[in-house]
Amino acid sequence: MNTFTIVFIIALIISHSIQFWLSKRQADHVAKHRDAVPDAFKDRVSLTAHQKAADYTLAKGKLGKIDDVIGIVLLLLVTLGGGIQLSFNLWSGWVESPLLAGVGAIASIFLVLTLLELPTSLYQTFVIEEKFGFNKSTLQQFAKDQLLSLGLGAVIGLPILALILWVMDSVGSLWWLWAWAILMSFSLLMSWLFPTVIAPLFNKFTPLEDGTLKNRIQSLLERCGFHSQGIFIMDGSKRSGHGNAYFTGLGNNKRIVFFDTLVKSLDDEELEAVLAHELGHFKRKHVIKMLIATSIMSLISLGILGWLIDQQWFYNGLGVEQPSNAAALLLFMLVSGTFTFFMQPISAYFQRKFEFEADDFAANNAKAEKMISGLVKLYEENANTLTPDPLYSAFHYSHPPAAIRIAHLETTMQPS
């Protein structure tokens, strides 16, 4: 057996063993604390809501374990099981152009993986979300979303994939620098286009009507020195009962978006505080920092691929007999997550740090007590558990656990 095959299998076993162990810790911790609301929330959250959140978390956790097992099996089938090699053999026999054959082979693998993962998505939406009262979607809407996503992936993704493969084939050993520049440029373009071109294909965005809420938000924007192309309400309720708010876009194409479910749940001052938090990410340059971090990691990843592409053991160790640039790219996209899994807690740490900074900004530019009450409502209505396992949350949570976050906000209310 190829040495790299052994390394890959060991990494796969270790990473998923850690994942299953953390998931068990999470399930045990949530179940253990299901029968009592944490002291910090006793006057804010009912026992019924707390138990609903626990049951919802446990249900999602069970499905997550099944999804992980399916993911492991599929990854092994397409790599060591010969699925990738079969795809490239078929496309090479159908298409004379190596470039088009590579595009077709890669697209086919991802299409098959997407289709095979549909059952868990259906179960999540129409069983778990339905059971806990969150699902508002229909089978027709679900099918429409899936087809639209696949269509966009083909229209946008295939030309970019073809361009990257052409660069790999044509510009020499430093192709990865050119590929990195293309991918970063494409990412920035998509971020700029998303609010006005992509997002409206899935949801309806209605400008916020004149009134006290709009006046309050505009006053906040002026205080923060933030300029956007409008404040919009998104019809999130046509798919889900979950609420959220975000700002999106780059440059002069920035938009502020509230889910309609959120507007119905929070009062004007709570919405102002939630938006102030989102603006905090912008004002504290978190978006730029994340973009820089992503750019650096992408450059390093492509540099590693630039080295691996000439290593025969890389292909043979993952079930591919005939080396090619397209095969190397596909293999790297599929298996890199197995090795970068161990970096996840580092990323989660910095994301939680950014959340604390954004909360501080919100407390300074809106009312901290309104930020707290708004968050409590969101935790309760979205059925987010108030008692996550500390290790699980440290590894996976991009936001601080509820009790820690609320306690931090409460310190901003104390006189200095």
Feature tags:
416 residues, 4-stranded mixed β-sheet, 4% strand
Quote the average pLDDT: 92
β-strand number: 4
Q: How is the main sheet built?
A: 4 strands, mixed
What is the overall shape?
globular
Which regions have little confidence, pLDDT < 50, spanning 5+ residues? Answer: none
The count of helical stretches stands at: 17
* Ends apart, CA distance between termini: 65 Å
Oligomer: single chain
Strand order of the largest sheet: 1-2-4-3
Helix-strand pattern? HHHHHHHEHEEEHHHHHHHHH
Strand content: under 5%
Class from helix and strand fractions? mainly alpha
C-alpha Rg, in Å? 23 Å
Q: Percent of residues in helical segments? A: over 70%
Secondary structure elements and pairings:
Layout: H1 3-32, H2 47-78, H3 83-94, H4 98-116, H5 118-131, H6 139-170, H7 175-198, E1 205-207, H8 212-224, E2 231-234, E3 245-248, E4 255-259, H9 260-265, H10 268-283, H11 286-308, H12 312-316, H13 325-340, H14 344-365, H15 368-381, H16 390-396, H17 402-411
Parallel strand pairs: 2-4
Antiparallel strand pairs: 1-2, 3-4
